[in-house]
Amino acid sequence: MLNQDLYQKVEENLNNYYSNKDNNIWRNNFHIEMPFGLVNDPNGLSYYNDKFHIFYQWNPFGCEHKNKHWALVKTDDFVNFTKPEIILKPEEWYDKNGCYSGGAYVKDNTLKLFYTGNVKDENNNRESYQCIVDYHKDGTFEKRGPIITKQPEGYTAHFRDPMIFIQDGVYYMVLGVQTENLKGRALIYKSEDIENWELVGELKTNMNEFGYMWECPNMVKLDKTKYAFLFSPQGLEAEEFRYQNIYQSGYIIGDLDLEEVSLKNHSEFKEIDMGFDFYAPQVFTHDGENIMIGWVGMPDKDNEYPSSDNGGWMFPLTLPRVLEYKDNVLYQRPLKLVENLRKSQIVNINNLTFCNYNLKLDSRNVEIKLDFDFDESNVIELKFKFKDEYISLVYDKRTEICIIDRNNMKLGGKGIRKFKLKTDKSLSLHMFLDNSVMEIYYEKGLQTTTLMYFPKEDELEVEIKSDNKLKLNEAIVWNLRGVKYE
Ligand code: FRU
Fold first, then answer.
1. Atom of ligand 1 nearest to the CA of 100
2. Rounded to two decimals, what is the model's pTM?
3. Is any ligand 1 atom within 6 A of the Cβ of residue 299?
4. Which of 195, 335, 349, 415 places its Cα 20 to 30 Å from the Cα of 367?
5. In sequence order, which residues have a C-beta less than 8 Å from that of residue 186 and are 6 or more positions away?
6. Span 4-334: which CATH code?
7. Where in the numbering of this chain does the Glycosyl hydrolase family 32 C-terminal domain appear (predicted)?
């Protein structure tokens, strides 16, 4: 088929899908996802022309990690979205094997998009080109090609994912890279005009042995001097309470010294999400808030996601989360606009003491807020039950260990995730349950877990159990509406 016909088919398939949705029980209602094909990293996140612009990696032709395009949806309320459209196609000599990830920056009324053109020859040798696109208010754009044509000496062609930040009127670009000795690193470039870039150097941290590649770096300004350097390292060894996924995403916080290209006095690496399915987050700033969206998925684990064979699509994006800097860590909370999803309050309970309680819900699209006092109990267990399958979440306040267990689900990824969570006398949980994604914020966002699940039955009950008397200060549940693409 000719390229043009292929794209016409994609457009037709999208239109068909939105005019008569199927009844696949795993399709998410309020998380961004595509009707078909494979979605991965969020890209080019920005607020431009009075709308949030959410670009993302999309293979519109199948559920494999190839044919990477940039697609786009726009919204101003996180309920009403524009219909997904393909923006960047891998069709030039400098991006023919994929328009890979990158960021955006608004300058002179133009949304400047930065991405990595991935090129491979017949022997699978890779070349990476950092490219620029001018995207305009009327939706037209010009792909202007490479602005950095090769990685510097001493690094491999794993050189990608440009993100822009500005300091003292100078533009900086941070890129993920691999050294020739196969160590993950980040490089910083700078520019006076956002067009011409020169290498500043390799970002100095004390993390010299920290995986073989750092993907999707973000430099996030927290206050005058403090920056969070957020990245997705590959090649860390799993430990009892961390690094349990094949690849990680997390951050260090320090004082950014651009003269010395160093993140000084930085904190220890902290994973940004402790769930099974979270990777390659991107952060942008709007109205003074640092807003993060992540990919709900994991590379190289395709067999954990049965929606590819049963539905022909893979992977949503997370809800937008605001990052707040407190006690030298980043707390996460849902962006206020996410409240637009609330349709009706279906539960409102106060001051109830029990050892066992069943929250029966006649919806699988809910936001749940729970606030407990441990009272005489030490262990709280939540069971998300889908008839005879369930996911459990157990927290023991004596050990401060939280365990999420997917072993009692029949389809999809299994296993447990285990992490430490500090609490005092109480525990607060804020959860968003969609048809196959669950996002949980613990203790006002001190930790989060994002995971996918593929239940056989379309019903949900949440059982709350404890080893002794437990006090539920408050439980509120909202039924959530689905987002629209029009
Ligand atoms: C992260 C990543 C990026 C790359 C993109 C390609 O998931 O591997 O490093 O740019 O995906 O789709």
1. 10
2. 0.98
3. yes
4. 415
5. 174, 175, 176, 177, 202, 203, 214, 217, 229, 231
6. 2.115.10.20
7. 339-478
